[in-house]
Amino acid sequence: MSVISRNPADPSDVLVELPAPGARFTADAVERARAAQPGWLLGGAAARSAALTGVAAAVEASSAELAALAVREVGKPAAEARAELARTVAVWRYYAQAPYEPTGAVHEPAAGPGLLLTRRRPHGVAGLITPWNFPFAIPSWKAAPALAVGNAVVLKPAPEATACALRLAELVQGALPEGVFTVVPGGAAEGGALVGAADAVSFTGSTGVGREVVRTATARGVPVQAETGGLNAAIVLPDADIERAAAHIAAAVAGYAGQKCTATSRVIAVGAALDPLREALAEALRALPVGDPAEETTVCGPLIGEAAREAVGGAWQGLSVLAGGTVPDRPGWYAAPTLVEKAPSGHPLLTEEVFGPVAALLPARDLDEAVRIGNGTRYGLVTSVHTADLGAALDSLDRLDTGMIRINAPTTGVDFHLPFGGAKASGSGPREQGRAALDFYTSSRTYTLTPG
User: Fold this and answer.
1) Phi, psi torsion values for 182, nearest 5 degrees
2) Residues belonging to the active site
3) Does residue 414 carry a pLDDT above 90?
4) Is the N or the C terminus of the chain less surrounded, counting Cβ atoms within 10 Å?
5) Spatial separation of the C-alpha atoms in residues 426 and 231, rounded to whole Å
6) How far is residue 141's CA from residue 170's CA, in Å, rounded to a whole number?
7) What's phi and psi for 107, nearest 5 deg?
8) Confidence (pTM)
9) Do residues 28 and 36 make contact, with C-beta atoms less than 8 angstroms apart?
């Protein structure tokens, strides 16, 4: 087996082609990391903080190079690639302060002399399996908190983002002791071996693979978190600023060709919002610049591969197309931003994540029906609600069964210092990011101290 990564805007441009190292190599990498981990932990908070600060500085100094690499390897539009690198730097800086955070508390015993202590300790080796769509940010927001609390890290990136992961590893390894951070390129065999050997597992990817990761890690008794698919809805009420809502939704449908777990794929227009939103959103999608991701004006670049383009191209077949619905005749794996309506109940667009720049427009009589439609999938990652009515916004917050709810904002966007994750089939296990990540990468211990 080989690991191959191509430029999705020019498939003849091969960035990486190398033999997959195999399951045994992966297991050995975990053992090397396990041997390096105690020294990393015992080096102390100041050393870990300085190392993560050094990673942030190294990534920042290389941001232009790294952004260009993301454009070339995963087809990320240049403006989005720069934004991802800025976020990546901020993530490392944020977690560079975490080694100084308290790791426990002191309690009074229920009776008699002594002390009760709680303390959080690292698991050992954190195995990270990451997707290609955020090739620097996602590995960083998993690795930085794991490292901050004293774990070693073994990262298995998606094959399509191998070059990005290897370059990130060079920068991280330059600031950390040997063996503390390792990248293992490869596919399913390497990923399975990592899940089977690591002391904690964090996964982001497809729902089906995520289920298997959770099953395997749980059977081993190791902590696991899995962030998987989304079928995210935008609810637009009649009192919303329709033009502004349409702009937000268009960007969330087609930005980076819809290749985000937080992308909008269902647009629910409430009552009188339907007709003006239909027109405004179709126009906004038609106006989005589609083309070479290296161009500064591009919003919707290529899809990651040929199979992805075929899946997206088939998603709108037989439906009423309001905008797009075409596959440009040009090199690269492109699809036009597309809006459809009158999708029948049970249509794949309403039940499965397409992971492309396609959304279905759905009518709702009132907010109650809109909430029922929004909740009516097996996914539950993020919902956006567009309204000028604070009461309606507050009413929707507790009735929508998604892990994140955004008012008058796109479904896309991540606040890295707050918990990130979804409900139902969109996620399993503890949340990522913020302080929640520090909790996930540690285990709590209770110590009882009594006089001898």
Assistant:
1) -135, 140
2) 227, 261
3) no
4) C
5) 9
6) 17
7) -125, 155
8) 0.96
9) no
